[in-house]
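Record type: monomer structure entry
Structure origin: computed from sequence
Chain ID: A
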Amino acid sequence: MSWLTNYVKPKLQKVLNARDTPDNLWHKCKSCGQMIFQKEFEANQRVCAHCDHHDRVPPLDRFNKLFDNGKFELIALPEVKQDPLKFKDTKKYTERLKIARAATGDTDAIKVAVGKINGQQTVIAIQNFFFMGGSMGMAVGEGIITGAREALNIGAPFVMFTASGGARMQEGILSLMQMPRTTVAVQMLRDAGIPYLVVLTDPTSGGVSASYAMLGDVQIAEPGAMIAFSGPRVIEQTIREKLPEGFQRSEYLLEHGMVDMVVHRHELREKLGTTLALLMGGRNRKRAAE
C-alpha cells in the first residue's frame, strides 16, 4: 500500500490540481449564452462568433484596432476636482472612483488619442463603459473639449465613440453642465469646417444621447446597440403601450433616419477611413496646394 499512498496518490492529486482553470479563460456571450474561449473572443474584437453580438470594448483595445499599425499617442487630459458635491449614497463618491480606477486602470471614463486612420491624422475620443457605466461627469466633459481643441489645432477630424448610461448623478448639476459645454465644442469644429463623426456603441443613453452623441456630421452605429434617452421599460410604463420589436436599437434608428449607417465592428476601421478621406479630401488638396 505504501507505493499507492506514497507515490500514486500524490501524482494523481498533482494532475487534478493542475486542471483548475483561471476565471478569465472563457467568456459567456450575453446574447446567446454560448461559452467562447477568451483568446478567440478577444481576437474577434469581442464579437460573438455564434450570434454576432457586439460586446463592449475597452478604449485601448479600440485604439489598437482603429489606428494604422496600432500606433497612436494618448492626449493628456486636464484634472478636475474630485467629489465637488461631497456626494454619498450607499458609498462615498470618492470610494466609487477608487474602485473604478482600480478595476480599469483609468483615471475616468474617457480616453483621447491622436494617430492615423488610412494615413489620415485623426483625433479619437472613446468613452469607457467599464468605468462607472461610462457616465458623463466633469472629467468626460473636459476630455471631449480637449479632444475637440486638439482637432482644431492640428486641423484633423474628430471621431467620438460613445458608450454611456448618461450623466453621473454623483456630480449633479455639474454633470448636466457638460451637455451645453460639449455642444459648444462641437459647434467650434463645425465653424472651422472640421468633420465630427460619432460612433454610437452599446449603450448610448441619457444626457449623452441628448447632446454630443447625436450631433455628428455622420452618425455611425454598431449592430444591436441600444441608443436612447430613457430606457424601454420607463417608456412603456409612461405611455402604457408595448413598444415595437427592436425599439431603440441601432437598426431601428437607421430605418427611421436617426443614424446614417450601421457598421459591423470588423468593417469599422475601413468605413471610417473611407468616410474621413471623403470629408477631408478638399481640405487636404487645399493644404497641398498651399
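Annotation 1: The domain at 57-289 is CATH 3.90.226.10 (2-enoyl-CoA Hydratase; Chain A, domain 1).
Annotation 2: The chain has two domains: 21-55, 57-289.
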